[in-house]
Automatic annotation (TrEMBL):
<keyword id="KW-0808">Transferase</keyword>
<comment type="similarity">
    <text>Belongs to the TAM41 family.</text>
</comment>
<comment type="pathway">
    <text>Phospholipid metabolism; CDP-diacylglycerol biosynthesis; CDP-diacylglycerol from sn-glycerol 3-phosphate: step 3/3.</text>
</comment>
<keyword id="KW-0594">Phospholipid biosynthesis</keyword>
<protein>
    <recommendedName>
        <fullName>Phosphatidate cytidylyltransferase, mitochondrial</fullName>
        <ecNumber>2.7.7.41</ecNumber>
    </recommendedName>
</protein>
<dbReference type="GO" id="GO:0005743">
    <property type="term" value="C:mitochondrial inner membrane"/>
</dbReference>
<dbReference type="InterPro" id="IPR015222">
    <property type="entry name" value="Tam41"/>
</dbReference>
<keyword id="KW-0999">Mitochondrion inner membrane</keyword>
<keyword id="KW-0460">Magnesium</keyword>
<dbReference type="GO" id="GO:0032049">
    <property type="term" value="P:cardiolipin biosynthetic process"/>
</dbReference>
<keyword id="KW-0472">Membrane</keyword>
<keyword id="KW-0444">Lipid biosynthesis</keyword>
<keyword id="KW-0496">Mitochondrion</keyword>
<dbReference type="Pfam" id="PF09139">
    <property type="entry name" value="Tam41_Mmp37"/>
</dbReference>
<dbReference type="GO" id="GO:0016024">
    <property type="term" value="P:CDP-diacylglycerol biosynthetic process"/>
</dbReference>
<comment type="function">
    <text>Catalyzes the conversion of phosphatidic acid (PA) to CDP-diacylglycerol (CDP-DAG), an essential intermediate in the synthesis of phosphatidylglycerol, cardiolipin and phosphatidylinositol.</text>
</comment>
<keyword id="KW-1208">Phospholipid metabolism</keyword>
Amino acid sequence: MALQALQSSGVAFRKILSHFPEELSLAFAYGSGVYRQVGPSSDQKNAMLDFVFTVDDPVAWHSKNLKKNWNHYSFLKVLGPKIITTVQNNYGAGVYYNPLIMCDGRLIKYGVISTSILIEDLLNWNNLYIAGRLQKPVKIVAMNENVALRSALDKNLKSAVTTAFLMLPESFSEEDLFIEIAGLSYSDKSPEGQFTQLMTLPKTLQQQINHVMDPPGKNRDVEETLLQVAHDPDCGEVVRQGLSAIVRPSSMKQSTKGIFTAGMKKTVVYSSLKLHKMWKGWLRKTS
């Protein structure tokens, strides 16, 4: 769950980054191409590398990237950087993906998200798409001195710790909770403690919990609902339902947007690769 500093593989990743416009507030790599997955497969060197680029001005960034990497884009490139940015910001989870790109001898996929939209997601969990990714192991390739972004990244991890704690049973191991939350200040799951934690959750998650618990027509205050949830033996399950209500729609919308941003041919190829990867994983589990 920690943002991990890039070490030995930094040179290779920064070399890939040199093919793109420099104006990035954050760039990170993730996935099976970065971290070895559980299982006997040794295809890490050939696995697709996944990147996310965070930019302050998406229109300007796409304009420069279209000049450098015109062939990365689907048919939307003919509509120009403003339309690409509109599709990026207003549909799905606020990310524009270019998949199946050969770059410096490696197959990569990269997503572009505006800094302001990422900060909102990190703080409020509006869709928990990139914010959710940043709760898992990633390798930072580049990061500027944006204080607001750094603060939001930290807040996102703290929110993840709080949420995970609410969903854990009365007793749990350090491994269950991960080493990053070893210093968590709460050691019993009292209603008072749970209410305090619920009140620190991101706004969108609080609203979804309220929606799960609030009977039609009652329109209770969010704080009133959270107080009820804190005393509920199924508090963790309610939090889980709230998370699901955030993640499921944003993932579906982002997948649908991929047909337009990547193009139909790339979407079919990419989906086939994902299905093949899932199938191999299932075979390993059953063998």
